[in-house]
Specification:
The chain has about 450 residues and is α/β, with parallel strands linked by helices. It folds into 2 domains: about 140 residues, 3-Layer(bba) Sandwich (FAD/NAD(P)-binding domain), CATH 3.50.50.60; about 210 residues, FAD/NAD(P)-binding domain (3-Layer(bba) Sandwich), CATH 3.50.50. The protein has 11 helices and 27 strands. The strands form 9 sheets. A 5-stranded parallel beta sheet has the order 5-2-1-9-21, covered by helices on one side. It has a 5-stranded parallel beta sheet with strand order 11-18-12-13-14. A hairpin with a 4-residue loop joins strand 7 and strand 8. Helix 1 runs parallel beside helix 8, helix 6 packs across helix 11 and helix 9 runs antiparallel to helix 10. The protein is globular and about 70 Å long. The structure holds flavin-adenine dinucleotide. The site of flavin-adenine dinucleotide (FAD) has 34 residues, from helix 1, strand 2, helix 6 and helix 8.
């Protein structure tokens, strides 16, 4: 193993891509490994799940991102094992690669916290395939309801578990979609969207004013809020809550928490909080020379507070790891990661968003919050897409669009005008399109 060996970047999400772009830009060879041939943009997953964007719009092929980067080789393969002690990566077919450095950027996975039936029957929302599976499932149920099947039961009712940004965003979007489907005569009655969280509020990481705004907008959209209660079991046709309530449903969406991707647990370091790997201020893994962890798989602290699992943390930490690797290769000391806080934000529905920005976490809502959301997401997308203006123009249209367009879009959502090549479409393998709840 020598310094001329490539840097192995495991995971091609925001963190891995950010890292590989920086290394490639500075003339360092990289092998970027991912099980998918595309980079997925998680903040827009709920738009795919609610048929407001086609899946291919948020899945950008790695080969396209690195087309002009001859030093970045992309490998599409599931990684079976990472050994940080000898900086090697083993693919599922047995191939072993070694590098001068390894950057672990494998992200997170849903954590079902051992709730019986959740893994089998709930829909997680962590990948493009998850979002597409959920969209197809809801479309099937809408078709059934439209055909008069099960109009009296809870066919269209949805239970969302978790009142964080994911749960709030998908609840708001689904409630609007259900209402629009009903208003335009597609279904005899709108499905009820219930949002369950153990806390007595939603968006717990936000300030009280933002939470109040979110609760008001969700209530106005007709979301049935079940706060201060947990989920005790998920079954094919219902959810049981800890207070004894039973909610009949065939669609449970899991936004109830996440932990580090499985592979981190066997890479060498003892996993910390959330199964994530505790990194030093410069993002290196203590005791494993040449090994870094970035993005959602890492517990990163800037100053005293642990940083949240956010796109901007992932992207910036990936770039910082690359810079430190370049310093190491040049025999220079590494530098600590300095996070440039872009704020926290969530969409609560069409025309409704909340954001906390700036050093003092200034709270804004409505169109101003949406503008902040759009700006931050355009910046996150810019690593993978050069045409952020196409995204901005889609964004404002999305914010203003009326419900009739939502219904239309629910059958055939129009694409963002990226102007990309037909040959550049990602290969999205959705896998089985039903969960146990359809069995
Ligand atoms: C529904 C949802 C909405 C979100 N909304 C926002 C938002 O609005 N704003 C925001 O800032 N953040 C948001 N986030 C968080 C943000 O998306 C993440 O913090 C960020 O994507 C993490 O980037 P990452 O590169 O660390 O991980 P990921 O993007 O998850 O990338 C990890 C990559 O590793 C690959 N991988 C994992 N294991 C293996 C393996 N064994 N073999 C091969 N490849 C593997 C995966 O395929 C994946 O491509 C959201 C997250 C979710 C789930």
């Amino acid at each position: 193993m020598s310094d001329d060996d490539p840097v192995l970047v495991v995971g091609g999400g925001l963190a891995g891509v950010g890292c590989a772009l920086k290394l490639g830009d500075e003339g360092h060879p990289v092998v970027l490994l991912d099980r998918n041939d595309y980079h997925q943009f998680q903040p827009l997953l709920y738009q795919v799940a609610t048929a407001q964007l086609p899946a291919e719009d948020i899945a950008r092929p790695h080969r396209g991102i690195f087309r002009d980067y001859p030093l970045v080789q992309t490998v599409t393969a599931p990684v079976a094992k990472v050994s940080l002690s000898d900086r090697s990566v083993q693919l599922e077919d047995g191939t072993v690669l070694t590098g001068s450095h390894v950057v672990l950027a494998v992200g997170a996975q849903p954590n079902f916290f051992g709730v019986p039936g959740a893994q089998e029957h709930a829909f997680p929302l962590y990948s493009v395939a998850d979002a597409e599976r959920l969209r197809l499932h809801v479309r099937d149920l809408v078709d059934k309801a439209a055909a008069g099947e099960g109009t009296a039961d809870a066919t269209l009712d949805v239970v969302v578990v978790g009142g964080g940004p994911t749960g709030v965003e998908i609840s708001g979007a689904l409630a609007e979609l259900m209402e629009a489907l009903h208003k335009h005569g597609r279904v005899p009655r709108p499905g009820r969207v219930s949002l369950v969280d153990r806390a007595d509020t939603v968006l717990a990481a936000f300030a009280p004013k933002s939470r109040k705004y979110a609760l008001k907008r969700l209530t106005r959209a007709g979301v049935d809020l079940r706060l201060g209660v947990g989920v005790s079991a998920v079954l094919p046709d219902r959810v049981e809550l800890t207070d004894g309530t039973v909610l009949p449903t065939r669609t449970v969406i899991w936004g109830g928490g996440e932990s580090a991707a499985e592979i981190a647990g066997t890479a060498g370091p003892t996993p910390g909080r959330g199964g994530r790997l505790d990194v030093q201020p410069d993002l290196r893994l203590p005791g494993f020379p040449g090994a870094y962890a970035v993005g959602d798989v890492a517990n990163i602290t800037a100053g005293s507070d642990p940083l949240p699992q956010l796109g901007s943390v992932a992207q910036q930490s990936g770039t910082c790891a690359a810079e430190n690797i370049i310093r190491e290769k040049a025999g220079q000391p590494t530098e600590p990661f300095r996070y440039k806080d872009k704020g926290i934000m969530a969409m609560i529905g069409r025309n409704a968003a909340v954001a906390e920005v700036g050093k003092r976490r200034h709270q804004v809502d409505g169109p101003v919050a949406f503008a902040a959301w759009l700006g931050v997401h355009a910046m996150l997308l810019s690593g993978a897409h050069s045409k952020t203006d196409a995204f901005l123009s889609w964004g404002w249209d999305y914010f203003d669009r009326d419900h009739a367009a939502t219904v239309e879009a629910s059958t055939d959502p129009s694409r963002i005008a990226w102007g990309d090549d037909q040959a550049d479409r990602p290969h999205i393998d959705v896998g089985p399109t039903t969960t146990g709840s359809d069995a």
